[in-house]
Specification:
Elements lengths: L2 H4 L9 H6 L6 H8 L14 H10 L6 H14 L12 H13 L3 H8 L3 H4 L4 H8 L1 H10 L4 H4 L3 H15 L2 H15 L6 H21 L3 H15 L1 H15 L5 H14 L5 E6 L2 H11 L8 E7 L2 H14 L1 E2 L5 E2 L12 E6 L5 E8 H9 L21 H4 L6 H9 L5 H12 L4 E6 L4 E5 L4 H9 L6 E6 L2 E3 L10 E6 L18 H13 L5 H6 L8 E3 L5 E3 L6 E3 L11 E5 L5 E5 L3 H8 L4 E2 L1 E3 L5 E10 L4 H11 L3 E7 L6 E10 L5 H9 L4 E6 L1
Parallel strand pairs: 2-6, 7-11, 14-16
Antiparallel strand pairs: 1-2, 3-5, 4-5, 5-6, 7-8, 9-10, 9-11, 12-14, 13-18, 15-16, 15-17, 19-21, 19-22, 20-21
Helix pairs in contact: 3-6, 4-6, 5-7, 6-7, 6-13, 7-10, 9-10, 10-12, 10-13, 12-22, 13-14, 13-15, 14-15, 15-16, 16-18, 22-25
């Protein structure tokens, strides 16, 4: 299977800038064999990397090519005599990988490391030699893409190699750029492998490399990888899609005529723009066929409009929606709200008088460059001025790893020492194909996968301290930890002061991020408690479990025991209470009427006598039911404050038939004031009942 068969870039209209240069496709077999015939003159670049130099100079006219000459000579000498399984000289592989990156606009350091990326792994060249000859940056990148020794790691070699690459990518994204280009060339030449090995490599590419290419914004690599994987793992669907595209090629394509109409409209409006027809790649056509059924001529491609400035994008959009019939449901603004992978464009669709619907993408030339090459187009995002367009991007977008998905990967991989756990969780994390940004109460931001809950936000912000989280405020409203978050929400996490409190098992049902799930699972495994599922299920979403030692209001007849007031029934003096020993020697105190008492006795929990101190503060949970009205929450809070009572946490459930239910966890200076407090709350207009939880 040739690369051209599935590569959208091979279409004559797909990359007009390459067509204008008149560059022919590189014959790597011929150049590779020529490179092995003998030494090259030292005063010029070897002919074998002439195409690399040409592609590099097209993006970086002032680049110093001497370092590429030295890197190529070292790579060619080191790999001399080695052959690929296809029968080609091995040097053709680093040449092909480097050419892929050069076409995407990678800077010189990336290309140098790309030429050398297999030398340490497959030859006698050492990392120290690479560092001495080419500097620390190249040494770090080459080390990052070098696989771990299979003899040392056995079956764990592949996941540990990816772990190593991810960690290195956290310091320099160029490591993953080279890995993606390396995998693309390997996938192009995978036909020489056994079918079962092709399938294994294709599955890893699908589950790990393609999501990474998407997250790094390298669409040019992602789309071709998708097509190559599609052909291997789904050959029947691939052949049907290929037949669809071949049949379309013999029919009249309406998109060029629509593109001409768009050019005329923009020319009359005085907007300087380039308009191109962009054919869909194979997987895109397959997806469209699944959703739309029978395809029409305009479904096989999209129209791309490139302009000079951001403002021109909206000017083009206005003209298109004025002169054509817009399909409003297809409009998306990724200019004002870029995707988490740096992507920016305006998406819309227009209907023509002939009944065709054409999708249109509008972007600036810089947006197009970043959309195709992603982080490759940014060069080294950690060095000021590396990218010629770095000044056009704000700091957060230039550095795509802080905050965001890569930060999360780097954080949770430290908590997953087991290779199988790491490999499984990595695939699950990468399957989350959309990201949201939520704002913290202190002004910071958190990058989370779509579908994340307050639990995920808690562990993203506080780490293991989130074990004591008891609730959250989302956009100023109190809510439970299981509540989902949307893009742009503001979240404030509420932590208990009780050091012995921990997560409930049901938190795992609402945690989406690996960091949260690993932390919760680890805590639950370290604190086994057969009755925990029962007690936690009865606990109110925002209740606070109060730990009391010798100075608290509950004292157990057990020396040096930590005493905890149960959150399910929140006992206060002079309630009749019963105590039970749970994990860690902690004594949990319940009201004797609490249903958990019978359950504790049924499972054989050790009973401990508990009595109240004469004077001490106490914690209690009250339920206030009221008719909904403006400022009700403020009035209730003010009434509680007038009684000298501290509000530990509160939640307000959504109104049902104009009735609202409030749950307060309160800290009273003296239990004797409970009756007066409940009376004061009932006196608030609209409140018709206040009761103990």
């Amino acid at each position: 299977m040739s690369a051209e068969a599935t590569n959208p870039e091979a279409h004559p209209d797909a990359r007009p800038e390459l067509r204008r240069r008149g560059r022919t496709r590189l014959d790597l077999r011929r150049l590779g064999r020529a490179a092995l015939l003998g030494p090259t003159s030292r005063d010029r670049l070897p002919d074998a990397i002439g195409h690399v130099a040409e592609a590099h100079r097209a993006h970086h006219p002032d680049a110093d090519l001497s370092v590429l000459r030295r890197a190529y000579l070292l790579a060619e000498t080191s790999h001399r005599g080695q052959m690929r399984k296809s029968g080609e000289p091995y040097i053709t592989h680093p040449l092909a990988v480097t050419l892929i990156l050069a076409e995407l606009g990678a800077e010189t350091t990336t290309l140098t490391a790309s030429l050398l990326h297999d030398t340490v792994e497959d030859t006698e060249v050492t990392l120290d030699q690479v560092g001495e000859e080419f500097g620390d940056e190249v040494r770090f990148i080459v080390d990052g893409v070098t696989k771990v020794e299979k003899i040392d790691y056995g079956a764990a070699a592949e996941p540990e190699t990816f772990r190593k690459m991810l960690v290195a990518t956290g310091n320099d994204v160029r490591v993953m750029s080279i890995k993606l280009a390396d995998r693309l060339h390997n996938m192009r030449t995978l036909g020489v492998m056994r079918p079962e090995k092709q399938a294994r490599i294709a599955k890893v590419t699908r589950d790990v490399l393609i999501p990474l290419a998407e997250r790094l914004g390298v669409q040019a690599l992602k789309t071709e990888l998708e097509d190559l994987v599609f052909a291997i793992l789904h050959p029947e669907e691939y052949e049907r899609t290929r037949a669809l595209i071949a049949a379309h090629a013999g029919e009249r394509d309406p998109l060029p005529a629509i593109a001409d109409s768009v050019r005329a409209v923009l020319r009359d409006a005085g907007i300087a723009a380039e308009v191109h027809v962009r054919p869909r790649h194979f997987v895109s056509v397959h997806r469209i066929a699944l959703t739309r059924g029978e395809l029409r001529g305009s479904d096989f491609g999209r129209i791309l409009v490139q302009v000079g400035e951001n403002a021109d994008c909206y000017a083009v959009l206005g003209e298109l929606h004025t002169c054509f019939t817009p399909v409003v449901s297809e409009f998306k603004d990724f200019v004002a709200a870029p995707k988490f992978n740096l992507y920016q464009s305006l998406h819309t669709a227009i209907a023509t008088p002939e009944g065709y619907v054409a999708e249109v993408i509008v972007r600036t030339r810089q947006m197009h460059r970043v959309a195709e090459a992603g982080v490759v187009a940014l060069g080294n995002p950690y060095a000021t001025g590396t990218s010629p367009d770095a000044a056009d991007c704000d700091e957060e977008r230039v550095d795509p790893t802080r905050p965001g998905w890569l930060s999360r990967l780097l954080d949770w991989q430290q908590s997953a020492p087991d290779p199988d756990t790491f490999w499984t969780v990595l695939r699950a994390e990468l399957a989350q194909d959309r990201e949201i940004t939520v704002f913290r109460a202190d002004g910071g931001t958190l990058g989370l996968p779509a579908g994340a809950s307050c639990i995920d936000a808690a562990y993203a912000q506080h780490g293991e301290a989130a074990h004591g989280c008891i609730g959250a405020r989302v956009n100023g409203r109190l809510t439970s930890l299981s509540s989902g978050l949307a893009d742009g929400d503001t979240v404030q996490l509420l932590l208990a002061h009780d050091a012995s409190s921990g997560p409930a098992a049901e938190w795992l049902d609402h945690a989406r991020t690996p960091a949260a799930r690993i932390a919760i699972s680890s805590w639950l495994q370290a604190h086994p408690d057969p009755a925990m599922g029962t007690t936690s299920a009865a606990r109110a979403p925002l209740s606070v479990v109060g730990a009391r030692g010798g100075g608290g209001n509950a004292v157990a007849d057990l020396p040096d025991a930590t005493v905890r007031l149960a959150g399910c029934c929140t006992p206060v003096p002079p309630d009749a209470v019963a105590g039970f020993v749970v994990r860690g020697g902690v004594v949990t105190v319940h009201r004797v009427q609490c249903a958990t008492v019978a359950q504790m006795r049924a499972v054989g929990r050790t009973s401990v006598a508990v009595h109240w101190r004469a004077t001490a503060d106490c914690r209690v949970t009250l339920l206030a039911e009221s008719f909904g009205r403006p400022h009700l929450l403020a009035d209730l809070t003010e009434a509680i404050a007038r009684e000298g009572v501290e509000v530990v946490s509160a939640t307000v459930e959504p109104p049902v038939e104009q009735r609202v239910r409030h749950t307060y966890t309160l800290l009273l200076p003296d239990a004797t004031g409970l009756t007066a407090l409940m009376r004061a709350m009932r006196d608030v207009p609209g409140v018709y009942d206040v009761s103990r939880a």
